[in-house]
Amino acid sequence: MFTQMRTADFEFELPPDLIAQAPAMERDQSRLLVLDRASGQVRHRRFRDLAEHFQPGDVLVLNDSRVIPARLRGTNTKTGGHLELLLIEEVARNDWWVMLRPGKRAQLGTRIRLHHPRNGPSELEAAVVATNAEGHRRLQFFGVPDILEALDTLGEIPLPPYIQRDHPGTEEEDRERYQTVFAQHSGSVAAPTAGLHFTSRVLDEIQSHGVRLCYVTLHVGLGTFAPVKAETLTAHKMHKEKYNVPAATATIVNESKNRGGRVIAVGTTSLRVLESVAARHQGCLIPGGGSTDIFIYPPYRFKLADALLTNFHLPRSTLLMLVSAFATPGEDRGGELTRNVYAEAVRERYRFFSYGDAMLIL
Q1: Theoretical Cys-Cys bridge with 43: which of 34, 209, 303, 358, CB 3.0 to 4.6 Å?
Q2: Residues 277, 233: one domain?
Q3: Torsion angle in degrees (nearest 10) through CA of 251, 256, 258, 263
């Protein structure tokens, strides 16, 4: 009989100085905590040694979504008040749901003049056409065929709020480092952070061990990082995110499973795609696109993924709950094991969250 999972079970103490404010000097210089699920043993390694943990026949599944410069700035055309916009979900071309601050300055009908980060007002405008229960605004954009085309000049990288920037000189570095080296398809408003550690050298070395690489696309939304506010996990409503599985990826993954190889998910986003599709197709990966709101927490039984590479996540987040489920599949003690592992990571001074270190669960 499994107990009701409480959100408070996924709380932990983290010294603020362990929240990584910048990436490692080189991507693959990050540290790597390796957890053996069967024994509970923890080993401390370096990310550039990742290939040593794989074997011929394994397949690595990576999320190739590209982060868009989703943060915009503007002014209310009527009052001149300053506004900050964060694109969160595309409805159609030039039609987006956004987080807008301060929201009280953007009621229905408000027109917003968008600004260049350094060059003042642009020719582009947006109008508030709807609001929702979460306080988000739906905007229609004008003056450009597609607002996505203007983001490289108007937009800023949407770093999470726990990363502080006191001066603008880091913008170009963040544009490069808050993006995986294999990013292809634009659409994420937050990075699939487990992939940030990879370099071409690491990927080549992994393949030299007889491991195949393949890709899925899941466009990461802000809901991924939001803390769960409900008292119990069953009361939490999960956000939806769009995904796509190429035919080549489905073939590689299914062949690997049939031959006894392991499927290693790079990041919780890749894992959510794998498990979403497998849950609908008797454990097989089927090509195609869609959206998923799968919420994985103990005692979930995984259908495709055999190993998980991930970062260290926020307290009370759905990501931490997913990791806890993966630590003890089909059991409800994963939260306790994960808290113990995180406590050791704190003692060993690992760096946490988006620009932090990595964890491999085997």
Answers
A1: 34
A2: yes
A3: -110
Q: Which pLDDT tens digit goes with each residue over 141-183? A: 999 999 999 999 999 999 998 999 876 556 889 999 999 999 9
Residue 47 within any structural domain of the chain:
yes
Q: Would the pTM of this model clear 0.85, i.e. be above it?
A: yes
Judged on CB neighbours under 10 Å (0-12, 13-18, 19+), 299 is: middle
Please state, in angstroms and rounded to a whole number, the distance separating the CA atoms of residues 87 and 73.
11
In sign, the C-alpha dihedral spanning 220, 222, 228, 233 is: negative
- Do 25 and 82 fall within a single domain? no
Q: Return the SS3 of 34.
A: strand
pLDDT of residue 325: 98
Torsion of Cα atoms, 137 then 294 then 198 then 310, to 10°: 110
**In this structure, are 187 and 254 located in the same domain?**
yes
Collapsing DSSP states into helix, strand and coil, what is residue 313? coil
Say which CATH number the domain at 256 has.
3.40.1780.10
Q: Which structural domain, as residue segments, surrounds residue 128?
A: 71-154
Residue 238 and residue 339 in one domain? yes
User: CA 87, CA 355: separation in Å to the nearest integer?
Assistant: 21
- Amino acid identity of residue 2, one-letter, is F
Count: domains in the chain = 2
Percent pLDDT > 90 in the chain is 89
